[in-house]
User: Which sequence fits this backbone?
């Protein structure tokens, strides 16, 4: 379990930094479109094993989080209520004991050096995209 204690004052500040809700059926924004270009979509999954995830980044101002999977696989997660952007210095902190990230899990966006909390979001489905080999 990864747990981070954040001062209560910073929790209040993070609540103001939420992004608008996202529509999982909306067409991808320009950054997401570029990220999935050349990839074939697969069947969405409700959970993925954390050991299979190598990194993450947000695109389109927090509209989606891209998780790097094994090999040439990426997972796109569009948090239904929106998610604060993972800008430089910010990281995604999870609080799971199952070894998986799942739809509905709450994640925090935190700057680990300053301990500033930028908000939380509930994850959506994990949409797999595999890079097309040429």
Assistant:
């Amino acid at each position: 379990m990864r747990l981070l204690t954040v001062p209560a004052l910073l929790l209040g500040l993070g609540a103001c930094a939420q992004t608008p809700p996202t529509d999982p059926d909306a067409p991808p924004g320009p950054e997401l479109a570029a990220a999935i270009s050349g990839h074939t979509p697969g069947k969405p999954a409700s959970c993925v094993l954390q050991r299979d995830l190598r990194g993450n980044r947000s695109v389109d101002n927090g509209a989606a989080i891209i998780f790097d999977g094994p090999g040439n696989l990426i997972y796109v997660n569009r948090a239904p209520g929106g998610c604060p952007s993972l800008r430089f210095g910010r990281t995604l902190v999870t609080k799971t004991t199952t070894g998986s990230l799942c739809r509905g899990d709450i994640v925090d966006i935190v700057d680990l050096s300053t301990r500033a909390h930028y908000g939380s979001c509930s994850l959506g489905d994990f949409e797999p995209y595999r890079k097309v080999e040429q």
About this structure: The chain has one domain: 8-131.
